[in-house]
Amino acid sequence: PVAIEAIELVKDYGSGDAAVHALRGVNVRFEQGKFTAIMGPSGSGKSTLMHTLAGLDAATSGRIMFGGKDLTRMNDNELTLLRRHRIGFIFQSFNLLPMFTAEQNILMPLTLAGAKPDRAWFDMLAATLGLTDRLSHRPNELSGGQQQRVAIARALVTKPDLVFADEPTGNLDSVSSAEVLGFLKRSVKELGQTIIMVTHDAVAASYADRAIVFADGRIVADVDRPDADIMN
Ligand code: ADP
Ligand code: ADP
């Protein structure tokens, strides 16, 4: 089954002669339970695709089908609910709250939504991400790799259908990167998540089931089981 699909997706910034064509009619389907890497040079449209798919940025034209609905036709309330309950985000800079423990950070999306945690799911996430003995630590007591694993647990705590990761290993050394990518790969396999990850790094992309390469607002390559050597 298809988790999310973009149809003739166009995004312009500005208009007229000064317009920047960030997405020039992108057609792409992301299958449920797959880990896809989006690659391509700086300025090629990767972030714009991610932001429009997540409903953070309005498309200029085209459709985005998610769960049988066209996301481009949703109002702000519907989009907020969608992001809160069905989409998870992982950022390059972790974005953890320094005053709160790892556990409180992980539970934050539920706390903000006033929702009760599923304790079994939480415990499973913490164990899968190797955080069980770090839950009472604050972010500054954790390594970069551990902080990013907390951020991944936070992204998954609401059991989202879809997870967007924006350069999740951009601030990590190679050992922590391998760890984080290994967990993303496992979470696709074991928890059935759909993950869309923007990365500059061919090694990071090689953990994905599929890699899409952007250039100048268009998809120029789409490969299954990307190999780090081929992607370079
Ligand atoms: P990437 O993520 O691949 O680096 P982006 O999606 O950020 O690419 O950018 C695609 C194009 O859109 C670039 O030319 C960029 O300068 C432009 N762009 C991105 N965001 C904005 C914005 N808020 N206003 C104007 N232009 C933008
Ligand atoms: P990782 O393999 O997760 O990147 P490191 O090898 O960087 O971990 O760190 C080893 C241990 O040192 C970690 O368990 C962590 O608790 C602790 N640690 C790392 N960085 C910091 C820091 N900036 N402040 C406090 N403790 C840290």
Automatic annotation (TrEMBL):
CC terms in the record's Gene Ontology section: membrane protein complex; plasma membrane
Lineage: superkingdom: Bacteria
Domain ABC transporter: 4-232
Transport recorded as keyword: yes
Statement: the UniProt record of this protein carries the keyword Oxidoreductase: no
GO molecular function terms attached to this record: ATP binding; ATP hydrolysis activity; transmembrane transporter activity
Keywords: ATP-binding, Nucleotide-binding, Transport
Name this polypeptide is given: ABC transporter ATP-binding protein
Source organism: Bifidobacterium vespertilionis
